[in-house]
Design a protein that fits this description.
The chain has about 750 residues and is α/β, with parallel strands linked by helices. Helices cover about 30% and strands about 20% of the residues. Helix 4 links the parallel strand 2 and strand 3. Bound molecules: beta-D-glucopyranose (BGC).
């Protein structure tokens, strides 16, 4: 009975709340309604002054803060909104991608931890700092499954596996929103960029994309679907096309799948000015047509609104039913209520003094843990961990001293020049103590302007025969340090502003003159052991660096805690545990190269004649540690597959045990030669072993058919319990029809 009364109260209070919003909408003028669907952007104080009158008239409902966020401005605008006729609070959004004041590793780096709990906590910490900065809404997590590292935004996502990306996206939703996104330490999440944006042709950002329903259903949609199921309060439509139509204007993508099949009745925001861009694409003839079409198919808010003013005329002329506008306004108001804006419109207090220092210390400690678990050791001939008889180390390369690179592509935008609290040189010096001499030489800049010449037609082109000017280039100092040391540690990488949005690259090289520095130094000291750390926003293709290095770490852009984490990993106080979630190619000519390709009809033919390598240099799932693990043959018992994993090395370490599946014959379409469908991190002492078992369920074996249904067929499957996507022993399992239903 009590349960029933509880349920009745919940239903009644929900319908009362719904009625309240309907009531509010019924009082709104058409301009006020359209205002709720408009999001503007702010850069300067002058912008605030320009928008205040509009806010007072209820003609704008939301803001993005860019670069110059000020809590005082936010609250001033909010006060103006509360003075407006209907007192509807504004919402304030920005990108919390890998932390706000604290810089955690970029998502592509943190993904290598294979620990979704870290993503949940990172998102929660980002939400805490974001709220204190004045935000109630983040444009994240990014759910795009990216295979082409030329696309700069691979850094913002979690790699090339759609199932794993779904696990991570759902974890971030939980972290940002908690059980109740209206709490002071939570924000509303926004899944982006729905969908297929990562397929930008040639890796060129904002390009069209070309894939069919099979790829849509099994590669691009799964992470979004997982995150929708996790309760995300909003979603952002993408910039790209699907089947020739910009996705935000696509009935199939927006109405049929998102709003229809998935029943997603929450807020959808477009991407930056993307409604107007349907004109540039050449699919809409006027702003009015663009606005009407995008709204009708299922978008609600126009980000950085330029076209929605025309909706008033569209309604007046009878071309647009006002009910379509009301539907979107309701979603906006529901979102504002869910993130607590009606209850607490002003920004939450930012702690001061000791309380802020304590909060920051907690965040920074977690940033170090994240960085520690993100770094992937790709090669090690035994030079690492550094031996106790090493007396002198030459730390060479721009990332040794610069505190900017590791910050990553999307720090909180309040500072124009975000930096990590310490450099790698400082951290390593601290870790090594007085007994070891550290000779630090940057040797060159992290990046310089490429050298250009005019082509025959007058068009500027890259000068491939001359190095670009770099005042910091100092090979002589680097060689001198290298000659006088026991071990060289190179700290190299990719400039952070060459990663992220609008940062496509055609060459997956070290930026500036770093490769040249590496080459001349290593040529001068051919006998010296070399450890290389690569800080990057994408998998760089560095075959000669990999070849000449005795040990190689990819740390990605590891955030504030990365210098300290790397110092611990180099000395061996900690053992590496990261595993790649994106393939590292030999050469840019191979890309896209990814583990979950299908076998093709002629698997041994069709490869490039001039580059013999077939797979990636380092595959998905790969990573070493300071110990060694042995896997038993996998065994199938009923609906379980299991293997014993033993630490056969000399020290405690963590292994990420991975479950891969392959369906032998699928009438609906060719499935990948392997797909990750499970993993377990196990930490084992020397000699210790553990049995790792995975359930063989329809969710593990299945796929999504072209109509969007989850399917699992009877027939033969291959399973692997393996350390990465290419190794491991296969076991075959035949599934009968029974028990394969979802
Ligand atoms: C990006 C989004 C971002 C938005 C607001 C766009 O250009 O594609 O990812 O959330 O800007 O900053």
């Amino acid at each position: 009975m009590q349960k029933f009364i509880g349920l009745l109260c919940a239903v009644l209070s929900f319908s009362t709340l719904a009625d309240e919003l309907d009531d509010l909408i019924s009082q709104m003028t058409i301009r006020e309604k359209i205002g709720q669907l408009k999001q503007a952007t702010l850069y300067t104080r002058a912008d605030v002054d320009r928008f205040l009158p509009l806010v007072r008239r209820g003609e704008v409902g939301s803001f993005i803060f860019n670069e110059t966020l000020r809590r005082e401005w936010r609250d001033e605008l909010q006060r103006a909104a509360l003075e407006a006729r209907l007192k509807i609070p504004l919402s304030f959004a920005d990108n919390i991608i890998h932390g706000w004041w604290t810089n955690f590793p970029i998502p592509l780096g943190l993904a290598c931890s294979f620990e979704p709990e870290l993503f949940e906590k990172m998102a929660h910490y980002g939400a805490i700092e974001g709220r204190q900065a004045g935000l109630d809404w983040t444009f994240g997590p990014m759910c795009d499954t990216a295979r082409d590292p030329r696309w700069g935004r691979v850094s913002e996502g979690t790699g090339e596996d759609p199932w794993l990306n779904g696990v991570y996206a759902a974890a971030q939703v939980r972290g940002f929103q908690g059980d109740d996104a209206s709490q002071e330490d939570r924000v509303g999440a926004c899944l982006k960029h729905y969908c297929g944006y990562s397929s930008s042709t040639g890796g060129r950002d904002y390009n069209d994309s070309d894939f069919g329903p099979w790829t849509l259903r099994n590669l691009h949609l799964p992470p979004f679907r997982a995150a929708v199921k996790a309760g995300a309060l909003s979603l952002m439509s993408g910039f790209n096309t699907y089947d020739g139509v910009p996705v935000l204007a696509s009935r199939e993508i927006m109405s049929d799948i998102l709003r229809g099949e998935w029943g997603f009745n929450r807020l959808v925001v477009t991407d930056y000015k993307s409604v107007a861009q349907t004109l540039t694409w050449g699919v809409a003839a006027s702003e009015a047509e663009a606005a009407r079409r995008c709204l009708e198919v299922g978008n609600d808010i126009e980000m950085v609104s330029t076209t929605y003013d025309s909706l008033e005329t569209e309604v007046a002329a009878g071309r647009l039913d006002v009910k379509v506008i009301d539907r979107s306004v309701k979603r906006v108001l529901e979102f504002k209520r869910a993130v607590g804006l009606f209850r607490r419109p002003m920004s939450v207090p930012k702690p001061t003094g000791e309380a802020f220092r304590r909060q920051t210390a907690k965040m920074q400690a977690f940033a170090r843990e994240c960085a520690l678990k993100s770094a992937v050791l790709l090669k090690n001939d035994g030079v690492l961990p550094l031996k106790s008889d090493v007396r002198t180390i030459a730390l060479i390369g721009p990332v040794a001293t610069d505190r900017r690179t590791m910050v990553g592509c999307w720090p909180g935008l309040e500072s124009n020049d975000p930096q990590t609290p310490e450099s790698l040189a400082e951290a390593l010096k601290r870790e090594l103590g007085d007994g070891v001499e550290l000779k630090v030489v940057a040797g060159c800049a992290i990046n310089v302007k490429p050298a250009m010449i005019k082509g025959d037609d007058g068009v500027p082109m890259l000068n491939r025969s001359a190095p670009p000017a770099d005042a910091a280039f100092d090979a002589a100092a680097a060689i001198a340090a290298a000659k006088a040391c026991d071990v060289i540690v190179f700290a190299l990488g990719e400039a952070r502003d060459w990663t992220g949005e609008n940062a496509s690259r055609s060459l997956l090289t070290l930026t500036g003159r770093q490769q040249e520095l590496f080459d001349v130094v290593t040529a001068a000291v051919p006998e010296k052991p070399v450890v290389t750390i690569v800080s990057c926003g994408r998998p760089l293709a560095l075959p000669t660096v990999s070849g000449r290095s005795n040990a190689l770490f990819y740390a990605f852009h590891g955030g504030d805690g990365c210098p300290a984490a790397l110092a611990e990993l180099l000395t061996g106080r900690a053992s590496p545990s990261g595993r790649l979630t994106i393939s590292v190619p030999y050469d840019v000519s191979q890309v896209p190269v990814y583990y979950n390709a299908c076998t093709t009809g002629r698997p041994t033919y069709g490869h490039y004649l001039d580059t013999p390598e077939r797979g990636a240099l380092y595959p998905f799932g790969y990573g070493l540690t300071y110990s060694t693990f042995r896997y038993s043959s996998p065994q199938v018992e009923g609906r379980t597959v299991k293997a014993t994993v033993q630490n056969v090395g000399a020290r405690e370490a963590t292994e990420t045990v991975q479950l891969y599946v392959r369906q032998r014959a699928c009438a609906e379409g060719a499935r990948p030669r392997r797909e990750l469908r499970g993993f377990r991190r196990v930490t084992l002492a020397p000699g210790q072993s553990v049995e790792v078992a995975f359930e063989i369920s329809p969710a593990v074996l299945g796929y999504v058919d072209r109509a969007g249904a989850d399917r699992c067929d009877s027939g033969f499957y291959d399973l692997w319990i393996a350390p990465d996507a290419v190794r491991g022993e296969r076991v075959e399992v035949e599934m009968g029809a029974e028990g394969l239903e979802f």
